[in-house]
Design goal:
Helix 5 (about 105-125) crosses helix 7 (about 165-170). This protein is an alpha/beta fold. The protein has helices at about 25-35, 50-55, 70, 90-95, 105-125, 130-135, 165-170, 190-195, 200-205, 225-230, 250-260, 300-315, 335-345, and strands spanning about 5-10, 35-40, 60, 80, 100-105, 155-160, 180, 195-200, 210-215, 240, 265, 285-290. It has 2 domains: about 5-105 and about 295-345, Rossmann fold (3-Layer(aba) Sandwich); about 110-290, 3-Layer(aba) Sandwich (Rossmann fold). Strand 10, helix 11 (about 250-260) and strand 11 (about 265) form a beta-alpha-beta unit. The strands form 2 sheets. The chain has a 7-stranded parallel β-sheet, sandwiched between helices. Strands 2-1-3-4-5 form a 5-stranded parallel β-sheet.
Amino acid sequence: MNKNAFRVGITRDFIKPDGSSDLDSIAGPLFNEAGIAWEYIADNTLELSSSQVKDYDALLVLGTAITADTIVGNDRLAIVARFGVGYDRVDVKACTDNGVLLTIAPDGVRRPVATSILTFVLSLSHQLLIKDRLTRSGRWEDKQDYMGMGLVGRTLGLVGMGNIGKETFKLAKPFGMKHITYDPYVSPDEAKAVDATLVDLETLMRTADFVCICCPLTEQTRGLIDEKYIGMMKKTAYLINTARGPIVNQEALTDALQNEQIQGAGLDVFEQEPIDDDDPLLSLDSVIVTPHSICWTDECFADNGKSACKSIIAVASGKLPTYIVNRDVVENPELKQKLKRYGSLNKKVPM
């Protein structure tokens, strides 16, 4: 093995039970054309150890945790490329302190997650799951007891208006809803550009017919939607979460649903994943649940893969990638040294 060659380790959670991986057809051509060696890491573990990554310059990560123990003392690693946009399982500070870039793939998930949010909006408003069950159980005549909710004039409220939130508002425009958002990092002009009104969180929770969680999981957003805010929601309102489970107090949400304080929920994420088989949420007809995969389409997978691979290829050529999470690392002398070395060793890597 050429120890000077740029090497990529891909977390083994990409591999399906039958031993195949859909990532092969995406990463293979890109890395092979760039002359980059790549392989799946030998063991599928919940988090990577330093011994597992010591021979890699780059990691392409699906759901495996990257901790300080993964990174500290590893002088070779230069980039952790997340397959997606969430990075709550990556120790960002450890990456920055040790000259390791952390990248995400917002160009890969923007449209798929936005369409997933609207999938929940449409399914819940038309009571799709309940009507499916009526049909399957021979309760055809009971359909008149389950009137759906029209969308014209209703209020779509997004908690967080980043790339996904903006795309959601753009796609929702033909439905004739009012758009409101709570995001402390967004200006009124930015909201206005997608026909949305910037409001405080209390106003959103009290006003929206669909409360959609679109923000990342951070220390500031963990438990943000708690019992107090859920209690403000209208009795006819729905809560939709396609972001991260711990942003919402699941116990408070479950209680509100069981007591019919809100109309229903669409949940792709949970406080604990996978959700327990006996979790009370799973017994509620008013809740549609998916296993953190509602946006898992061929489009999403391909675009996430291409974005993550291109970030790695940029680093292999000694350049900075586009979607960097920890911008402070750019000035880290360790990273600069790594990029300089890659630039001299991999001058033929295409961009």
